[in-house]
Amino acid sequence: MNTKFEEAIYINNNIRKPYSVEEISEMRRNDLDQFLSVKGFLFCPECNLPHLAHNSCNNKTDYFSTYPKDEHDENCSCICQKADRKILVQVDQDISLSRIKNRLEDCLSLLINDKAVANNPFKVFRNEQLLKKAMPTKINYDSDYYIPRKRLTQYMDSDYADQFYIFYGKVKLKSILISDKYHPHIFRIYHFKENRLVCSLKFSDNVYNHLPDTVKAIKNCKDNNDNYVYSCNIAFYTKMTSYYKKDSRVVGNTFFEGVINNSAKIVFQDIVQVNRP
Ligand SMILES: [Zn+2]
């Protein structure tokens, strides 16, 4: 069961507004009156049923949690079991069965744009063919499963390395061309407001060439003097590697890096060129 959330939807009469946990954390620090007026109207971003509470943490990232007596709708992914490694590998390997591209698009609709979607993008249903391929010997599945997700926020931690996630968020982005035999295209992804590096994504020539024209139109930074920065919404499915680099300017001196090995495993929205980060 998923118990921590990184966004909530504010619903009060006819007003709806999606908030990230970072936005509510900032409101709580800087505008307590506004926070107090909003906090009783925050709901689950998927099913809109249970109230969510904002939790401030000292050492970890803040998060939303479900009010103790409130319950999620039965169609919400939050009440499913977390998909295990075999299922997540199958999602990665069989992109037509897993419909990963649709899931990524629907993830942005649901969590960033507050648009209704026909199918919950995080759920893998117990009767889906995908499960039979992932676990051929298993006959009964106890429940539906959910694909874990991680919003691209200021802080990533080692929990998010070496496992498959749907990563998503509103970010800034730079495209860099390097001389590398296998992955010459790098997208550096920065926090939307704070401009800190969140992670990097690597692409081969072949995968890069299959990206949409709007993405390939992003100007490459060929050396340190180039500084073409774009904003966009992004969602992708991969496993990140973390590595430690002393004296670096990222949080905890730890870099996160993932490979996108198929253009169906990444989607973009609203790409706009902006100023330097
Ligand atoms: Zn829910």
Total number of domains: 3
| Alpha-beta classification | alpha+beta
**Radius of gyration of CA atoms, rounded to a whole number:** 19 Å
User: How helix-rich are the residues, as a percent range?
Assistant: 10-25%
User: How many DSSP-defined strands?
Assistant: 16
Identify the CATH architecture of the largest domain.
Beta Barrel
By CATH, the topology of the largest domain is OB fold (Dihydrolipoamide Acetyltransferase, E2P)
- Major sheet size, sense and barrel closure: 5 strands, mixed, barrel
Strand content bin: 25-35%
Ligand catalogue: zinc ion
Q: Tell me, what is the CATH class of the largest domain?
A: Mainly Beta
In round numbers, the mean pLDDT is 90
Shape, principal axes of CA atoms: globular
Low-confidence stretches: none
The number of distinct helices, counting runs of at least 4 residues, comes to 8
What series of H and E elements makes up the topology? EEHHEEEEHHHEHEEEEEHHEEEE
N→C terminal distance: 37 Å
How do the strands of the widest beta sheet line up side by side?
10-11-12-15-14
List the helices and strands and how they pair.
Elements: E1 7-12, E2 15-20, H1 21-30, H2 32-38, E3 42-43, E4 52-55, E5 63-66, E6 81-82, H3 85-93, H4 95-98, H5 100-111, E7 123-124, H6 129-134, E8 145-146, E9 149-151, E10 164-177, E11 185-191, E12 197-203, H7 205-209, H8 213-216, E13 220-221, E14 229-244, E15 254-259, E16 266-274
Parallel strand pairs: 6-8, 9-10, 10-13, 12-15
Antiparallel strand pairs: 1-2, 1-3, 4-5, 7-8, 10-11, 10-14, 11-12, 14-15, 14-16
Helix pairs in contact: 1-2
Zinc ion is lined by residues 44, 46-47, 49, 72-73, 76, 78.
